[in-house]
Design a protein that fits this description.
Elements: H1 2-9, H2 28-33, H3 42-53, H4 60-69, H5 81-85, H6 91-99, H7 104-116, E1 120-123, H8 131-134, E2 142-147, E3 156-161, H9 167-184, E4 187-190, H10 196-206, E5 211-214, H11 228-235, E6 240-243, H12 255-265, E7 269-274, H13 280-290, E8 294-297, H14 308-315, E9 320-321, H15 325-331, H16 344-362, H17 371-380, E10 385-386, H18 387-394, H19 398-410, E11 414-417, E12 421-424
Parallel strand pairs: 3-4, 3-7, 4-5, 5-6, 7-8, 8-9
Antiparallel strand pairs: 1-2, 2-6, 10-12, 11-12
Length: 427
């Protein structure tokens, strides 16, 4: 592993990016787009980004500062610690930790898990990386994705709110979401949580729109588990499930505020349909305002405690009071109408449908499935069996088996019968 570091150390003298002249005041991404930074190897970029993310106290903001100063490749890890310490808020202790990094086994493990779960890795070098997300102070360096990466290139609008909506909140969320999709073709972004998030995703799908779910866990660990089926609906209808957390990451509480900056940062605006005085929606509003995003808030009856946060935010001037989608469009004239017949959802759905058809032709034989899916399909061939009996037959946990069965069902391999019984689809 030390050899990997030594092999690139000789290039250090050419990797320093000037802080003056034509580069002053620009980010490394802007220089890369102008071809002022060249020869960035994508694999090396991924590896150094993963390495830096594993260093304590180094997040996306600090990584961006390092990339603004040094060439974003493996040579960065071999810089003199004093040079690293001179960058922004890095400091001596963090600089030494970067210089001493040698946990390449963990980097390799993350990449192995990424491949194992058939996840796509989107980097800031890629054309499908969301343009608006690049503009925020601390854009995620890497995004893990399952679904259609083209969804990231469409105009997005976020809808957030309480996990425990009232009847009025549910109706408002569904109505606003449907009108946004019909009137503009926006891709709807939310966090896949219970309540308002789930309602927004579902309403977008019901309008044949596109939607993106941003997770506070690894994409392989859908949370909450009750929304696994919703997540696969999103993936299989032209949308995407994304996360900046590597596969295997648990949905720990501290991940969700970090996640929320992506929900707002990827979007031209944020709509809060119902929220109380505390919770993730308040964090998303704060992030949106710092990111210079438009914030829209639906007012509520003063007797509705679950909407009290909306009224307080309006009083404090944190967002524009809206009672209809038309009032949102007034603030977003460039996005008022996307092409009605061929809006963004139509375009990405056609691409997704083509990919799915091709995929079915390519995977028409069981032998081409992953080993764990292959075992399940072969065990189900010619029989109808209860999930608990199948779990015993395969010697696996029922909870793990249910996730795999759901993916096989949504991929067209398996049919679920009444009473939690399954069988393989006849081809």
């Amino acid at each position: 592993m030390e050899k990997e570091r030594r092999d690139v150390s000789d290039t250090c003298q050419t990797s320093l990016i000037p802080e003056s002249g034509s580069f002053a005041g620009t980010t490394w991404q802007e220089r890369y787009k102008r071809n002022q930074i060249q020869n960035i190897d994508r694999n090396a970029f991924i590896r150094v980004s993963l390495a830096l993310s594993l260093v304590p106290n180094v997040g996306a903001g600090r990584i961006c500062k390092l990339y603004n100063r040094f060439q974003p490749d493996l040579s960065l890890l071999s810089r003199d610690w004093a040079e690293l310490a001179s960058v922004g808020t890095i400091g001596a202790a963090t600089a030494r930790a970067i210089r001493q990094f040698n946990n390449w086994e963990q980097v390799d493990a993350i990449l192995t898990e990424t491949k194992k779960h058939n996840l796509q890795l989107v980097t800031q070098l890629d054309s499908c990386y969301p343009e608006l997300l690049r503009e925020i102070y601390d854009p995620p360096i890497l995004l893990w994705l399952k679904g259609n990466p083209e969804a990231l290139k469409t105009p997005c609008f976020s809808i957030v709110g309480t996990r425990r909506p009232s009847t009025a909140g549910r109706k408002l969320t569904t109505g606003f979401t449907r009108d946004l999709v019909r009137g503009s073709g926006f891709t709807i972004v939310s966090g896949l949580a219970h309540g308002i998030d789930s309602l927004a995703h579902t309403a977008a799908l019901e309008e044949n729109g596109c939607t993106i779910a941003v997770l506070g866990s690894g994409v392989d660990r859908i949370y909450p588990q009750q929304n696994i089926r919703l997540a696969y609906r999103i993936m299989n209808t032209g949308g995407a499930v994304i996360s900046e957390f590597p596969p295997g990451t648990k949905p720990d509480p501290q991940n969700f505020p970090v996640r929320n900056r992506i929900v707002s940062g990827i979007s031209v605006g944020v709509l809060v349909t119902e929220t109380d005085l505390e919770g993730g929606s308040q964090i998303t509003i704060d992030r949106a305002l710092h990111q210079n995003r438009e914030v829209f808030i639906v007012p509520h009856d003063i007797r509705n405690p679950r909407g009290k946060g909306c009224n307080v935010c309006i009083q404090r001037g944190w967002g524009k009071l809206v009672t209809s989608v038309g009032e949102i469009f007034e603030e977003l004239p460039p996005y008022r109408i996307l092409q009605s017949a061929t809006n963004s959802a139509d375009v990405i759905r056609k691409k997704s449908d083509t990919a799915n058809v091709a995929g079915k032709r390519d995977e028409s034989r069981v032998d081409k499935l992953d080993d764990r899916y292959k075992r399940i399909v072969r065990a189900l061939t010619g029989i109808v069996i209860h999930i608990d009996d199948l779990a015993k037959k395969l010697d696996v946990a029922t909870s793990d088996l249910l996730t795999d069965l759901l993916e096989l069902e949504l991929s067209g391999w398996v049919i679920q019968k009444p009473g939690k019984k399954f069988t393989v689809r006849e081809w």
